[in-house]
Design goal:
Strand content: 15-25%
Distance between the termini: 73 Å
Structural class: alpha/beta
Helix content: 25-40%
Strand order of the largest sheet: 1-2-4-3-5-6
Largest sheet: 6 strands, mixed
Number of helices: 6
Shape: elongated
């Protein structure tokens, strides 16, 4: 915690904020039911920790009790936004489809209290230290979600420490998101079409180009035999030359 605090302070100073207002605390110790209007924010940008576990008394601070720290943080962010406030949150992509009670309840809470207008589907390795694929949720608090625009990010290379995400990788996403353009990488999901029991929002691109159909086994075997015969002819010619 202390190292993250120091890094946060240093990062803000390096970006021109000479007196950053960063508080060193465990945000999850706050009972979200006690958050008042004066405590709420217009914008929340966050990359909460994944896979952590909290004590039983911490879980009791939340309406949807779960051991997953990222899910607890998401509840806190929703509660901490003012009406009309905007949130942009990085979270593991399994949040969109997990069948456990907490995941289903949280997806219902998010889409009923906020307009989840955009989901950016990121390739593996986008965020260092995250061993799972991630998505970025863009939402506005105060009205329910009617449709969600998905964009599948494909930088065309493996992501990692030596190949980090850059501004050029996001150019198309930024351009398309301004008008919610549909393409081979982007599509809409209508909430009226989402199962109201599971609230499954898993990433399934209906606009992706169809893959070439797999060849029948007999066709593959014939091609192998033809290649073997061709190889034998070439080897025979080489043998005659020796």
């Amino acid at each position: 915690m202390s190292l993250a605090y120091i890094i946060g302070i240093m990062n803000m100073i390096l970006h021109g904020i000479e007196a950053p207002n960063i508080i060193q605390t465990n945000t999850l110790t706050e009972d979200i039911q006690g958050i008042q209007e004066k405590d709420r924010h217009d914008v929340i940008l966050a990359n909460p920790p994944f896979g952590g576990k909290e004590r039983k008394e911490i879980k009791q601070n939340f309406t949807i009790q779960t051991g997953e720290t990222a899910f607890l943080f998401l509840q806190h962010f929703i509660k901490s936004l003012r009406a009309g406030g905007r949130g942009v949150i990085v979270i593991k992509n399994t949040f969109l489809s997990n069948a456990d009670n907490a995941s289903r309840a949280l997806r219902q809470e998010l889409t009923s209290s906020c307009n989840l207008h955009t989901v950016l589907d990121c390739p593996g390795g986008t965020f260092l230290g995250a061993e799972v694929k991630t998505v970025v949720l863009f939402f506005e608090k105060g009205k329910p979600t009617e449709r969600v625009w998905f964009y599948q990010l494909d930088p065309g290379r493996n992501m990692g420490k030596t190949n980090p995400l850059n501004d050029d990788d996001l150019k198309e996403f930024v351009a398309f998101q301004s008008s919610f353009k549909e393409s081979e990488r982007s599509w809409f999901v209508e909430m009226k079409d989402v199962d109201q029991d599971s609230f499954d929002l898993s990433v399934k691109n209906p606009n992706a180009p169809e893959e070439e159909p797999l060849r029948e086994p007999d066709v593959i075997l014939k091609e192998i035999a033809d290649l073997d015969r061709e190889s034998a002819k070439i080897l025979a010619v080489i043998g005659e030359m020796l």
